[in-house]
Structure to design on (413 residues):
């Protein structure tokens, strides 16, 4: 109730006034997204800062726990504000009203027309200011999360959190990767975390029971991506390894592809450039946050080992046509600085993904990676990607993958 009153009063002030001030204050803001218009009590808060650099550039910093996202595509024109998140297509268009902002967040860009109500209020650094009680529990540790229990969509995930006083941060891991950087608060017997990174818009809440469990959990990532969940402490729970979820079918033919790059040129695995090379094939989407984390890691790997015989190819599953996907791919490549090959492989979706990776058995996710040795043999397949938000899991993956690539590169054709 306190949250509803707080948010309704802010929206009334922002939407109802006639006086507009076209001066946006520098400093911290509490941003809020109404991801689902039918569930106002699940409005999603996030932290942002408006700053002007010493050379006069206006920037917005969006923070989620250990991550800071710098928005350089930012402009103020009169009383209108425009900001576009890096890498992805998401953008915010708002007006300055009473030193605050009110407008729309377009998760797939303005052209897609889909939008959420957005507003931001200056001077607030608390991510959940309507939750002001002292923490009634310490939730630090490892949690077994059961999502949609008793339904065909039921699944088990792992939550890992670190709490200091009321502040809590961490992530959630599943067989497809992780939810990246989550940040929030424990207030009384309530748990709440959120994240906005240009691809994800996530909020999770739950009640803390007398037994220390998390109950009545709610999750919203979009109007159609919602679930219920519960959790209990479990320091030993683990998920299947990423290279155990998908296998190459018996008697599968050598993997092959032939797709267009962003210049419209056809690239095939049989091209001379790939002969007797170690090749990593990644099935990704430029809309996918876990694919972003994977791209950053693999690009570093590529720059280190490309002169020793390593090639990387990203098969991109995007919009229905190459022309509709080209801008998204170009933006992703440019803003990640990726130097390896990106190809349009078809529209996003599991049907398209399975049609390209038809020689694989298992539940494929974005991303899925194939490691091919110098003889053209698939030596390993991994599905999903747990990025830097997972801490030690990411560090372990980086170490193990680097050693595996070094081993493949040492082998003779």
């Amino acid at each position: 109730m306190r949250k509803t009153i707080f948010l309704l009063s802010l929206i009334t002030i922002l939407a109802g006034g006639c006086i507009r001030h076209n001066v946006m204050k520098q400093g911290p803001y509490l941003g809020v997204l109404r991801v689902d218009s039918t569930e106002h009590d699940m409005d999603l808060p996030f932290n942002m800062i408006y700053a002007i650099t010493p050379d006069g550039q206006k920037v917005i910093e969006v923070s989620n726990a250990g991550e800071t996202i710098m928005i350089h595509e930012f402009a103020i024109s009169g009383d209108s504000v425009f900001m576009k998140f890096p890498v992805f297509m998401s953008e915010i268009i708002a007006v300055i009203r009473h030193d605050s902002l009110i407008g729309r967040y377009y998760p797939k860009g303005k052209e897609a027309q889909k939008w959420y109500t957005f507003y931001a209020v200056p001077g607030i650094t608390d991510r959940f200011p309507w939750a002001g009680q002292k923490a009634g529990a310490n939730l630090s540790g490892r949690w077994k999360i059961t999502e949609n229990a008793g339904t065909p969509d039921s699944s088990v995930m792992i939550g890992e959190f670190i709490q200091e006083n009321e502040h809590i941060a961490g992530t959630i891991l599943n067989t497809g990767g992780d939810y990246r950087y989550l940040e929030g608060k424990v207030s009384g017997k309530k748990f709440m975390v959120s994240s906005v990174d240009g691809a994800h818009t996530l909020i999770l809440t739950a009640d803390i029971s007398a037994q220390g469990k998390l109950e009545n959990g709610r999750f919203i990532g979009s109007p159609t991506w919602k679930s219920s969940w519960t959790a209990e402490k479990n320091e030993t729970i683990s998920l299947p390894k990423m290279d155990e979820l998908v296998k190459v079918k018996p008697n599968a033919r050598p993997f092959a592809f032939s797709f267009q790059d962003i210049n419209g040129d056809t690239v095939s695995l049989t091209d001379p450039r790939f002969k007797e090379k170690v090749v990593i094939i990644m099935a990704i989407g430029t809309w996918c946050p876990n694919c972003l984390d994977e791209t950053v890691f693999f690009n570093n790997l590529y720059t280190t080992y490309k002169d020793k015989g390593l090639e990387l190819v990203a098969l991109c599953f995007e919009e229905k046509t190459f022309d509709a996907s080209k801008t998204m791919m170009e933006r992703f490549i440019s803003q990640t600085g990726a130097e390896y090959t990106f190809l349009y492989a078809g529209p996003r979706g599991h049907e398209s993904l399975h049609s390209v990776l038809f020689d694989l058995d298992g539940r494929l996710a974005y991303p899925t990676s194939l490691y091919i040795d110098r003889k053209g043999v698939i030596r390993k397949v991994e599905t999903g990607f747990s990025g830097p938000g997972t801490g030690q899991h990411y560090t372990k993956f980086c170490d193990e993958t680097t050693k595996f690539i070094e081993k493949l590169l040492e082998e003779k054709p």
Observations:
- Residues 392-410 form the longest helix (19 residues).
- The chain has a mean pLDDT of 93.
- The helical segments are 2-16, 289-305, 322-336, 350-356, 392-410.
